[in-house]
Amino acid sequence: MENLDVMVLRALHGWRAAGRRALLATVVRTWGSSPRPVGSIMAMCEDGAVVGSVSGGCIEDDLIDRHTRAYAQGASQRGAAADGGHRIPSGPPSFVKYGVSADEAHRFGLPCGGTLELLLEYDPDPVSLAALIAALGAGRLMQRSVRLADGVVTVAPAAAPGDLVVDAVQLTNTFGPEYRMLLIGAGQLAEYLATMAVFSGFAVTVCDPRDEYRSAWGVAGVAVVKDMPDDLVQAFRPDRRTCVVALTHDPKLDDLALLEALDTEAFYVGGIGSRRNNEARRARMIEHFGQTEEGLKRLRGPIGIYIGSKTPPEIAVSVMAEILAVKNGVTLPRDMAVAQAKHDREIQPTAAQALVCGTGGSGAATLA
């Protein structure tokens, strides 16, 4: 599944290249609770077709209603009004707020106290959209700036990811290429994890030199290659939008790939395995590959968050949740880490132990 921003831009470009009128809505400010973050985009065609989202749906419904009413009544001239005040103007971009009052927040389905502001761009230039889409398809990080006075757009490479910036002159939004996931191993767990990653907007590549595993792969939309994992990591050139996850339980495949990944900017590097297996992996890397505890700080394992998972799909949910948390800059509580949670559960007495160790009212306890 393609990155959501790219899907929105591609749909918008298709409409505009076909000569259809359309708008691009961008969330530029939020106050209180908001269903979508600043920088979220949505494209809308003149017939009401929508790709992307700026809210939970009610704001989209209002925009669709106003937009389609205006054009259905032939409001084709700049600034023309239709249907008693329903106005979707052409020309320079305009700002619109939703949820300013409690009544509006309720009517538009915004959370209590929530307010958001959108910038609406009318009939964006298909040429600049095509240039942006091509650059993103080539894996480049890009900035799209919109001059508020007249809607003129400039597209340029970005040096680093950044938040949306809007002032009295222009709006600048940074668009990045797809997040990528490189999975080492094509087993059942990899299939579940790849499926979740694809639906989360990742471009997924699975590497497994073992023919018997590759031949059974069943997830569409995923690149499957047979290279040796450490060679592929080098060729893959992981960046800050890449995660590398080793899933084979085979040190010959996992260890070298993880070592290569640790020398990159990958935002997440981790390997499957129990606490004991992960400790053994770290010991091997230190003893045989000259690694240090400092050099292994970025290596995650056991991977995932603790949800008591036992089956491959549950483990995949656990791992995908941790990857998304790291991607989104969320620091998880220490007791959600698999190793810490299991350790804490081991030292907590069971109900039976509590009875054995109970005092019976004397205040003294004996260990069984």
From TrEMBL:
Quote the protein name from its UniProt record: Cytochrome oxidase I
Q: Per its UniProt record, what Gene3D superfamilies does this chain match?
A: NAD(P)-binding Rossmann-like Domain
Chain segments annotated as transmembrane:
none
Q: Which residues form the XdhC Rossmann domain?
A: 181-323
Q: Which residues form the XdhC- CoxI domain?
A: 15-77
Q: Which residues form a coiled coil?
A: none
Which Pfam family, giving just one, matches this sequence? XdhC_C
